[in-house]
């Protein structure tokens, strides 16, 4: 297994394997980090991971972990925010039993996927 050298702020350079390293990749907005429990002092060390570091770690066999970012954060938005009238309209729509098919006919779902 490849030995990966990392630096502990207390112990200096330490030798790790890919399994020792936790690589967090943030989806969308967010910062990527890598961390490891120091084999000498067992302190957990966490550092920011720029693209170069990420490439290095990946090539060393580190499995990246995708950090969950709520889908709302990265979903595309369009149009004005909903208001009370929209809410009332929606409420009235829900009074009908076929509200779902009506809703499907009204909104253009293609907008969301394109
Ligand atoms: Zn240490």
Descriptive notes:
There is one protein chain. The chain has 114 residues and is α+β, with helices and mostly antiparallel strands. It is built from 5 helices and 6 strands. The strands form 2 sheets. A 4-stranded mixed sheet has the order 5-4-3-6, with helices on one face. A hairpin with a 3-residue loop joins strand 1 (4-8) and strand 2 (12-16). The longest helix has 10 residues, at 84-93. The radius of gyration is 24 Å and the shape is rod-shaped. 7% of the residues are buried. It binds zinc ion. Zinc ion (ZN) is lined by residues 8, 10-11, 38, 40-41, 43. The site of zinc ion (ZN) has 7 residues, from loops.
Radius of gyration in whole Å, from Cα? Answer: 24 Å
Name the poorly predicted regions: none
Span between N and C termini? Answer: 43 Å
Q: Sketch the topology as an H/E string, one letter per element.
A: EEEEEHEHHHH
User: What class, by secondary structure content?
Assistant: alpha+beta
The biggest sheet amounts to: 4 strands, mixed
What ligands does this structure carry? zinc ion
The number of distinct helices, counting runs of at least 4 residues, comes to: 5
Helix fraction bin: 25-40%
Give the beta-strand count. Answer: 6
Widest β-sheet, arrangement of strands? 5-4-3-6
Mean pLDDT: 86
Identify the overall geometry: rod-shaped
Beta-strand fraction estimate: 25-35%
